[in-house]
Amino acid sequence: MRVATQPMITFQNVTKSYNEGPAALEDVSFKVNPGEFISLVGRSGAGKSTIAKLLIGEEKPTRGRVFFKDTEVNKISSSELPNFRRHIGIVFQDFRLLPNKTAYENVAFALEVAGRPQREIAELVPQVLDMVGLSEKLQSFPNELSGGEKQRVAIARAMVHRPEVIIADEPTGNLDPFNSWEIISLLQKINSLGTTLILATHDKEVIDSLDKRVITLDRGRLIRDEEKGKYILA
Amino acid sequence: MITIFSRIINYGFTNFWRNGLLSTATVAIMTLSLLVFVGLLLANTITGAMINVIKDKIDISVYFKTDAAEDQILNIKQSLEALPEVKSAEYISADQALQNFKEKHKDDPEVLQSLDELNANPFQASLNVKAQDPNKYAGIAGYLNNADLKQYVDNVSYAKNQTVIDRLVALVASVNRIGLTVTIILSFVAGLVIFNTIRLVIYSNRDEIGIMRAVGASNLLVRGPYFVEAIITGVIASILALLVVFIFFIAIPGFYGGQTYFDLNVPGFNMNQYFYSHLFSLFGWELLFGIGVATISSLIAVRKYLRS
Question: Residue B63: phi, psi to the nearest 5?
Fold first, then answer.
């Protein structure tokens, strides 16, 4: 059930095209309310990642507007962008951990860049890593962790500064089914604690079992937006 | 702000340490480049010392008529010394000249005997004049040949030495020119090598720069650690380059009693002494060049990945 409050994220007739090629997104509009768990579904190249990039200001829309609450994302100056990104947690398919930092340091980094005091970091980071089940691996470097463990570090990093929204872009793309389920249930747990969650995926089993709102994209167009959606591409 | 800066410094040191192999390679390449740079500084100094030796060999002598009074000659000496072109003027009296001649030929009794038979001092009093700059001899010779001094001056040695002086002047000038050109070109190449090395290091870190930005790191926080790493690399490479110079020019020659391949034997130039008295300025130039090029390279190289 959607609550009629101010939406957290609004896409208004957004079109995004790269150079001369076909549009990656075409006239896409949708809203995400606080606390929602939505899945963006579609084949590779359907525009899921573009939505994530537009949301964190990595790309600017060719036409249309993207809002995070009252803020129009593409109007944020490049010097303000780092600050803005600290309100959003991102989880990538390829984990994107800093290879020269331990699990602890990777998570701490998200707080350090925000200028949070050392004492707070020392307290918060082990808690979050414990929550994702990695309390034993604080001092491990990414190359010493399995794929599932790396993704859990990435999730810990995305949630440690308590963002209002977490965007997970194909978080299970590089994982086996067992690890995929662990990651999805972790994301559900984070959502149940109040964080808005946007999950971009093409994993049919994951979507069908979630029983949450599903936005389906096909070649840059939004073709379906269902409250309790299934994975249907046709 | 203090927290941010201390974190930047901390990241810089940690990255440098954990990127062990890459950092070692960077330091090695930078050390080689700095050796080229220090080598140029030393080569310029040694060439300078050699040129000074040659310059010092050039002088002109003014011979005075035998009837010129010593006071007059000393007056001329003073007026010469007052000229800005003149570095020194040495008075050699007729007696002194005789003395010098006798000293020089003391093992040659025939010469001394014939000198005794003269019963008079055949030598003229003279002034030995050295110019600040070898180019100025023509001017000084002109001054000595002017009408006022004609009554005292018998002849000036410039005319007969002119060709030799001119050649030496040309030689000195071209050595200086070649030295400067080689210094500029090789420094540029050394700088380019450092620039490219740093660029490659940062290229290999481009994904991490993207990650840092995605997590919300400000440009300062992305750039800072690379800047710190560049400084660390510059400092270590400067120390190493100086150490290599010390080993090859001071320690090894010292071990062999100074008589080695590197013993340049330039009069008035002592490598040992020069090294110790210029230790800090050599190190300073290295630091300036090494850190300067490295930090600028890192700023330029990172900027490319901060644009999105």
Answer: -100, 135
